[in-house]
Amino acid sequence: MKKNLLLFCVSCFLSYSTHASLIDSGVTVNELSHFSLDTLGSHDKLAKNLWHKSNPETLFPLIDKIGTTKLSPASKKILITLLTQDSTGFDFINTQSENLFLIKRIEALVRVGAFKEAIELIDLIPMQSLNQNLFLIKANIHLALGHFEEVEKIIQDMDQTRQTDETRINLFLEKEERNKAVLSYEIYRDNQEINNPLFSALAENILLELDTNIPNEETVNIEHIFLISRLKNQSFDLEKQSDGIKKIFVNLPAPKIEDRINYAEKINLTADELASIYQLPLLDSNIDKNHLRRAEIYQKIKAETDPFAKAEWLKTFIKIAIQDKLGLSLAPLIIQKLDGILPQQEYKDLAFYAAQIYILHNNLEKANEWYQILKNEKDDSYQKQRLLLIPGMQKLGAGIPDETESLLNHFCSDLTKENCSQFWQKSAQIFYETLPNTKPNRPPLMIFDYMNQDQSEKTGENLIKAIFDLNDETVTDKHSLLFFIKQNYPQDISLPLELEGTLYQ
Question: How far apart are CA 357 and CA 492, in angstroms?
Fold first, then answer.
């Protein structure tokens, strides 16, 4: 790396903040032994030797799976953290591999819908190190976010290629400049080097209003989704697509409201983003569908002035969210509404559900306030709910109540009873050590290849593998995986995974 480039990069980093050594992005300048593209990251929560012993031939395919593999909300957040780390990387054979490592990280962030993080990472790169691929990624992200002026600034200085032409056509379409979009597509179509049959077929249908057969592609890319959203008869199964594609789709105005709400619930949206989707007019939609029912209930919660009625609606909302295994995805939005309800005995039917949501957010104080409501109720139904909350409360540091064993003997002396088997699957290791009279037989621990000593220095690679295994429904031993992550990574990595495992859904 040339000396003047290094000096330029350091001066750019220092310009972000008045501090001498730490900039807002969390990159500690005085710890960088050398500058290269793989040192770029927006924070440094993990050790800087993440990729020290990894080989691109094994690491890159793992990164390529991020965003194409089904993951829980906590798992997605952890991988976003991992991909945005400032780390010293590993020894690359050549600059091309080094650049590819950064591009693969950014592409993975886009696939999981972490658009803000992807842009932050690109913005750390000195201008002279940006290539056509990175400019195009940045332009498409800004287009997805509706930042049209930013898109125009980026593509006006880019070489004209098939990909930039597609971005330009989509830009005109989203700006409602249809005539420009049609003219641009006709020029695009006359280019003999064009080879994107799905884009062409979609454009023929949307822009030229021709009944052109649309290929049934399994993978949809960003350049396609703007056109797909405008199809009158939606035939694409977006369930199979990445969160990034779904995130663009739900924020576009053209798709059916029913579809936007359906996909919005399952992706990495903030509470405010999800609230705006839930407030879309339902009109004549079939409210019997749970995602539309949740939207309707959310609108009732927002409009309700009676505190007790609001609490009842919120309980129903959380209950059907957990029923559809969406408690984790919807938790940020639920928290906004729960914070407006004072925990008290008259809301005892809400207590179990509220406590679970606060446990997921690592808020022991709030979870305990709702837990105490159940503790004060003598009825068996409330006491059993209290028992089911103990594993999550214990993980947050509340300890195990003295009466836990008597509760277990009362409710779960027979493991075939409702929720008893689930309780033991989700309960913390300490239950096995302190409650010998009630514990069931535990399956033997599994040893995964990356847990071996000779693999221990591949920390970033190992974390990706462990996350994938944790989300693999065929892997039964989640205890070994959680223990491995807890022993080798910071608590803010391991705890969210442990907490989401306590949710009864």
Answer: 17
Q: Is residue 241 classed exposed, middle or buried when 0-12, 13-18 and 19+ CB atoms within 10 A define those classes?
A: buried
Helix (H, G, I), strand (E, B) or coil at 481: helix
Rounded (10°) CA dihedral 469, 265, 330, 429: -20
Q: Among the residues of 400-448, which ranges form H helices?
A: 404-412, 420-426, 429-434
Chain length of the chain: 505
For tokens 């000096």, what's the residue? 7
Nearest to 502 by CA among 373, 382, 404, 358: 358
Q: What is the mean pLDDT of residues 466-490?
A: 90
The pLDDT score that the predictor gives to residue 134 is 87
pLDDT at 41: 62
39 forms bridges with which residues in the sheet? none
- Residue 46: closest CA among 19, 73, 26: 26
> How far apart (Å, rounded) are the C-alpha atoms in residues 355 and 390?
10
pTM (two decimals): 0.83
What is d(CA 144, CA 229) in angstroms, rounded to the nearest whole number? Answer: 12
Secondary structure (3-state) at 320: helix
CA dihedral 432, 435, 438, 439 (to 10 degrees): 0
Q: Which residues contact 65 (CB under 8 A, 6 or more apart)?
A: 464, 468
**Residue 183, C-beta contacts closer than 8 angstroms, at least 6 positions apart:** none
Q: Are 115 and 145 in contact (CB under 8 A)?
A: yes
Place of tokens 């990356």: 450
Tens of pLDDT, residues 23-40:
233 333 333 223 344 455
User: Helices 491-500 & 380-395, crossing angle to 10 degrees?
Assistant: 160
Closest to 390 in 3D by CA, of 377, 376, 409, 375: 375
CA distance 34 to 48: 13
Report the candidate in 143, 150, 81, 134 with the shortest Cα–Cα distance to residue 112: 81
Question: Cβ contacts of residue 180 below 8 Å, gap of 6+?
Answer: 172
Highest mean pLDDT among 198-202, 282-286, 359-363, 455-459: 198-202
- Whether 317 and 294 have beta carbons less than 8 Å apart is answered as yes
pLDDT digits (tens, 9 = 90+) for 187-242: 998 876 667 899 999 999 999 999 889 888 778 999 999 999 999 877 788 888 99
CA-closest candidate to residue 389, choices 341, 426, 440: 426
Q: Which DSSP category does 85 fall into?
A: B
pLDDT digits (tens, 9 = 90+) for 44-76: 677 777 887 888 889 999 999 999 999 998 999
CA distance 272 to 274: 5
The answer to whether 461 and 62 are in contact (CB under 8 A) is yes
Burial of 398 (0-12, 13-18, 19+ CB in 10 A): middle
Give 182's contacts (C-beta < 8 A, 6+ positions apart).
Answer: 207, 208
